[in-house]
Structures are given as structure tokens and as C-alpha cells.
Design brief:
single chain; mainly beta; seven-stranded mixed β-sheet; four-stranded antiparallel β-sheet; 11 strands
Length: 129
């Protein structure tokens, strides 16, 4: 079975930080690109960040660039999303997803998630004073 599980969400004040974790089981994380997506109530799902299969190249949505950082810990089979300087607009359910798309060997895109095959259940992030 191929599964990813998110954790680390919660309630934080504006300007605060959270670190989300995406733990993989049933496959080795370093063979897949990993994307983070989010969906706020009443809004379309949007890509947040991704990390490529082997090159380590990353991609970020303009809205989070400079505030969020995606990283891998292959020893723990986990991908992290460090979120700093959080804003109320960041409030959403955050999902991680894995893609084995070969084109993502050296780069990645989020898009609408078409090329991501395995999705977690989501973790709620709420940014509020």
C-alpha cells in the first residue's frame, strides 16, 4: 500500500510559524516528487510548493515564496513544509501528494495536481488572532 500522511497543522497567530510533515509509507520518498496543496473553504485547490524527485529543485507559489520552505529527510521518509510569517490568507486544509511522473526528475510543477497520484487526508491550518 502506498500512503502519505500529513501532520503538524493547528491554530497559530498571524506572523507565527508551523512545520507540516508528510510521511510516506509503502514507497521510498526519494523516488517521487512531493507537492503541497491547499484548499480554503469555498475556494479551488491550489498548489503551494513541490520538490523534484532527485535534483532537489523546488517550486513555490508566488503567494508563499520567501515564507515557506519545502525540504526532504530521506532517512525519515518524510517531506516537510516550514511555514513562517503566516497570514490569515494561509488558512486552509493542506495536503501532500506524491508524483512518480518521470519529467519531475529534475523539476516539478504543482498545477491542479493532475500528475500527483497519492494524496494524504489533509491537515487543517488556521491562522487567526
Amino acid at each position: 500500500q502506498l500512503q502519505v500522511v500529513e501532520s503538524g497543522g493547528g491554530l497559530v497567530q498571524p506572523g507565527g510559524s508551523l512545520r507540516l510533515s508528510c510521511a510516506a509509507s509503502g514507497f521510498t520518498l526519494d523516488l517521487y516528487a512531493i507537492g503541497w496543496f491547499r484548499q480554503a473553504p469555498g475556494k479551488e485547490r491550489e498548489g503551494v510548493s513541490c520538490i523534484s524527485i532527485s535534483s532537489g529543485r523546488t517550486n513555490y507559489a508566488d503567494s508563499v515564496k520567501g515564507r515557506f520552505t519545502i525540504s526532504r529527510d530521506n532517512a525519515k521518509n518524510t517531506v516537510y513544509l516550514q511555514m513562517n510569517s503566516l497570514k490569515p490568507e494561509d488558512t486552509a486544509v493542506y495536503y501532500c501528494a506524491a508524483s512518480g511522473f518521470r519529467t519531475f526528475q529534475t523539476s516539478c510543477v504543482m498545477g491542479r495536481g493532475t500528475f500527483y497520484d497519492y494524496w494524504g487526508q489533509g491537515t487543517q491550518v488556521t491562522v487567526s488572532s
